[in-house]
User: Which sequence fits this backbone?
């Protein structure tokens, strides 16, 4: 698989983190185990470890983001790396500089790692293909393609609550069609051998042949889809899609696919509710669910730092290996 | 690498740990260190610390320290594959600590462990107890309490096997202990 060759070095170690696709179960478990160790760093008086001291990480966010960018920044800082946050809207790219020129200029400033978010699918792969041999690229979300660190932090959160993957029923609810998060989640769940993966959405928001492509079951009815599930992952309904006639209205969407306490009764009593954020309250879910005892949404944010530390440490660690 | 041979049997190790406990008790009394907290360094150090903790009858729970994130060879060998989270059940600030490891060789593990401890707080004092001190120091670090002292050839390694029974194994390596040619360490193996 081409992604595999791009992401791994000759010894099979993680050099870039671009997509879940092609990564082995063993490597994903190793990343999750690594993140477990990093979780404890937040408990220290000095919330830092010296692992990546001297390394420089540049956050290149061509799309707006607060949560993801901040957690990447905190993750790098907790590894003692130096962090550059580039304000793309006022940068040279906005003045016409090409992506490759931006990459070359930052490489000339001895940046060791780029965390890239871009509206175009494939941007992180493109940068990885052209990056200098000592530079790592992490995909922080590209177009509709992938958001691998979000999927990994979701897997981490699931494992902490459910202990493992091979006995689970997991439902992903919402705009599967436009969601890079959902794509990465489906690949991660499959790789981690979750036996029952369900996607639940209106027909207009499900990709064609999703069942064959990802080995999941498609449901068009929320109550049926979340019956006896262990995990419910709600996706953000991208309001910008509302105008494209894929959905009649937010109100109707909530009536049919919004998660409420009442509807949660169909899931297992100890089912957890997840959401990558930001939540549209009253559209994807009720506030009672978002803030309820089964919600692990804020934990996902905390876990995101540890998981991103693990990904960064593994990529930066492989740079020095011969 | 050659097959490991037994350097110290279990009975000798248990006896040495008993002596270490007596020596530690005397030191604590002489220095007036009240209510110390004991912390073992993964993995062998925790095995030794578990025994010392019981022999000294310490009231505070035993702490575990993983120094993987503080190793100074990260850029050479990458991140350690089997990191166990450190667990410090007591506050470090202003506490008298007893740090325990299995083998003191280069001193780099102890340096890393001290760095971890200081990221949790500022201890009042740290006493270092190790089962074996051997040649090969690369940093100015010495133990306060020692079970065995050993002198080995440049290619020889001493390693604690455990947790039950504890046995010290001696192995001759085929490579020189030159950091520039040092191969990646196997999982769970410390720097000494």
Assistant:
């Amino acid at each position: 698989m081409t992604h595999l060759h791009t992401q791994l070095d000759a010894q099979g170690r993680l050099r870039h983190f671009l997509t879940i696709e092609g990564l082995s179960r063993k490597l994903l478990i190793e990343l999750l185990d690594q993140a477990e160790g990093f979780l404890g760093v937040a408990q220290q008086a000095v919330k830092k470890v010296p692992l990546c001291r001297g390394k420089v990480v540049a956050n290149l966010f061509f799309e707006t983001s607060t949560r993801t960018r901040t957690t990447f920044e905190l993750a790098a800082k907790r590894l003692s790396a130096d962090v550059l946050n580039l304000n793309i809207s006022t940068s040279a790219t906005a003045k016409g500089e090409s992506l490759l020129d931006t990459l070359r200029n930052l490489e000339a400033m001895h940046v060791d790692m780029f965390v890239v978010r871009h509206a175009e699918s494939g941007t992180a792969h493109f940068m990885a293909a052209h990056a200098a041999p000592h530079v790592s690229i992490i995909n922080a979300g590209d177009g509709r393609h992938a958001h691998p660190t979000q999927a990994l932090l979701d897997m981490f959160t699931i494992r902490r609550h459910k202990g493992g993957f091979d006995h689970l029923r997991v439902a992903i609810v919402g705009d599967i069609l436009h969601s890079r998060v959902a794509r990465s989640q489906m690949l991660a769940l499959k790789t981690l051998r979750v036996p029952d993966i369900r996607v639940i959405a209106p027909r207009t928001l499900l990709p064609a042949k999703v069942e064959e492509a990802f080995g999941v079951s498609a449901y068009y009815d929320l109550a049926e889809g979340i019956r006896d599930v262990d995990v419910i992952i709600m996706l953000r309904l991208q309001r910008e899609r509302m105008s494209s006639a894929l959905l009649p209205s937010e109100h109707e969407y909530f009536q049919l696919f919004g998660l409420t306490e009442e509807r949660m009764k169909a899931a297992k009593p100890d089912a957890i509710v997840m959401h990558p954020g930001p939540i549209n309250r009253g559209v994807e879910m009720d506030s009672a669910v978002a803030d309820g005892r089964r919600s692990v949404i804020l934990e996902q944010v905390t876990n995101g730092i540890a998981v991103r530390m693990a990904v960064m440490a593994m990529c930066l660690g492989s740079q020095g290996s011969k | 690498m050659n097959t490991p041979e037994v350097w110290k049997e279990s009975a000798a190790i248990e006896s040495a740990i008993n002596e270490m406990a007596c020596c530690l008790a005397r030191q604590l009394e002489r220095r007036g260190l009240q209510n110390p907290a004991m912390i073992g360094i993964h993995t062998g150090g925790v095995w030794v610390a578990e025994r010392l903790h019981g022999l000294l009858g310490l009231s505070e729970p035993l702490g575990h320290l993983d120094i993987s994130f503080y190793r100074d060879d990260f850029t050479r060998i990458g991140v350690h594959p089997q990191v166990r989270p450190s667990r410090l059940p007591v506050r470090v600030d202003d506490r008298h600590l007893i740090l325990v490891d299995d083998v003191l060789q280069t001193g780099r593990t102890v340096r890393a462990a001290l760095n971890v401890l200081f990221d949790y707080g500022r201890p009042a004092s740290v006493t270092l107890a190790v089962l074996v001190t051997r040649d090969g120091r690369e940093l100015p670090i010495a133990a306060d309490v020692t079970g065995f002292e050993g002198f080995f050839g440049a290619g020889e390694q001493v390693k604690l096997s455990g947790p039950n029974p504890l046995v010290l194994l001696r192995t001759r390596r085929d490579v020189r202990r030159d950091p520039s040619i040092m191969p990646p360490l196997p999982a769970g193996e410390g720097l000494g």
Summary: The longest strand of chain B covers residues 125-134. Residues 10-72+84-154 of chain B form a domain with the Rossmann fold fold (CATH 3.40.50.2020).
